[in-house]
Amino acid sequence: MFSNGFSKKSGLRSTHRQSRGIVASDLRMRDSLFIKILLYPFSLIYGAVVIFRNWLFNIKVLESKSYRASGSKVICVGNITMGGTGKTPVTEYLVRLLKDNYSVCVLSRGYKRKTSGFVLSSGKSLPRDIGDEPYQIKQKFPDITLAVDGNRCRGIEKVLSDVKPRPDVFLLDDAFQHRYVTPDLAILLIDYNRLITDDLLFPAGNLREPAKSKDRAQIVVVTKCPADIKPIEFRIIGKKLKLYPYQSLHFTTTKYDEPKALFEGNGKVVKADSISGYEALLLTGIANPAPFEEYVRKLVKNVEMMNFSDHHNFSKNDYSNIERAFGKLSSEKKIIITTEKDAVRMKNDPNFPESLKNHIYHIPMSVSFLYGGEDFDKQILKLCGKK
User: What residues are paired with 106 via a beta bridge?
Assistant: First the structure.
């Protein structure tokens, strides 16, 4: 026996398990690299098509409309990558900044809604009518105008003709690639964990456009940064991105609020630091759940994870599986935690189990600027003008 309390045989088994883990990790990396190599020719073809399309806009063969003559300003918020970069929290930040002094309209495409064409949101609109994120925004800011339309030009023109008084500012959510509209200001969001300079074009990577498309943005925001990011990283990322003098660079982190009961009449609001002894079933149906999972694991002692696809519509079978998974948690102190976006769908779902309504909470989130926040606000307010 060794003096540290394990046998030579068990030590060998442990070493063998570690070796297998390392080998498995190397194999996954090699397989991933192999897949990227296989897909790279298709990325070149995809990139050529995207570059050609952008060139047609640049030489004005494809028309891009400006709405300056209407008197309304158009601010575009978007990205050039697959998956979430935090567009909705940034859009909500802009709404908070502007809503008290300007008439604001948020225009989104309404991803995965069940309707089509132009829809002007009313107080009775549901997620299936306008989409998850637009519904979430309208619930938070009921006094703003919110509309959805995949055709942003048509959407702007319908709002200008139908809504009185006309909006002072249009916020186009997820529209950086929608080049049929010429925005007065374009805001490009880049995920700190997936910098566009370190990525490849789809399908080998996550880029929807070449990284050079960032040049169309007047403001670049690196989102989802660690709260304790070092100042030297600001400079390193800035050098990587190689922005032009007309572009400003800003950094944000995700700020999480206290967990809130999804069904307010049945649950109670809890302090984040009061659930450290709980077991949690974590439900996510978002593009990149890793940062949210990391945050929740800091709150509670044990987390069981159930991941679903982005914008997942929960079925009765899903809810049955969730009930079983929650029932298997052994602690008397247990809780279900989900994202703000998933909560929107669940709260409006008549199939959500009654047995879980007392136990499920969601965690609202927002953005907080780490660097350049005041300059960001000034740039937005300067564009909108004095009121």
Answer: 146, 171
The structure tokens 């805001």 sit at 187
User: Which parts of 263-329 are beta strand (E)?
Assistant: 279-284, 302-307
pLDDT of residue 225: 96
**Spatial separation of the C-alpha atoms in residues 43 and 211, rounded to whole Å:** 13
The rounded distance, in Å, linking the Cα atoms of 267 and 362 is: 11
Cα 11 to Cα 300: distance, rounded to the nearest angstrom = 32
Task: Give the three-state DSSP class for 32.
Answer: helix
The 8-class DSSP code of residue 70 comes to G
Q: What is the pLDDT of residues 102-153, one digit of tens each?
A: 999 999 999 889 999 999 999 789 999 999 999 999 999 999 999 999 999 9
Q: Does domain 65-255+374-384 have CATH number 3.40.640.10?
A: no
Alpha carbon separation from 225 to 108, 117, 171, 281, 289 (Å, rounded): 25, 36, 24, 26, 15
Tokens of 235: 């400079």
- What is the DSSP pairing of strand 260-261 with strand 279-284? unpaired
What is the C-alpha separation between 47 and 52, in angstroms, rounded? 8
Inform me whether the pLDDT recorded for 25 exceeds 50: no
Take residue 158 and report the two structure tokens written for it.
């319908």
Question: Position of tokens 């509209």?
Answer: 181
Count Cα atoms within 13 angstroms, Cβ side, for 277.
4
Beta bridge partners of 352: none
Is omega for the bond preceding 203 within 30 degrees of 0, making it cis? yes
CA–centroid distance for 327 within its chain: 30
Radius of gyration of the chain (CA): 23
Backbone angles phi, psi at 348, to 5 degrees: -100, 15
pLDDT for residue 203 is more than 60: yes
The continuous run of DSSP H or E covering 78 comes out as strand 73-78
- List the alpha helices (DSSP H) in the chain: 8-58, 87-98, 127-130, 132-140, 152-162, 231-241, 290-299, 316-328, 340-347, 373-384
- The first and second tokens of residue 76, run together, are 């575009």
What pLDDT does 269 receive?
58
In which residue are the tokens 């995949």 written? Answer: 150
The per-residue pLDDT for range 280-290, each reduced to its tens digit, is 999 999 988 98
Q: How far apart are CA 229 and CA 354, in angstroms?
A: 43
* Residue-level length of the chain: 387
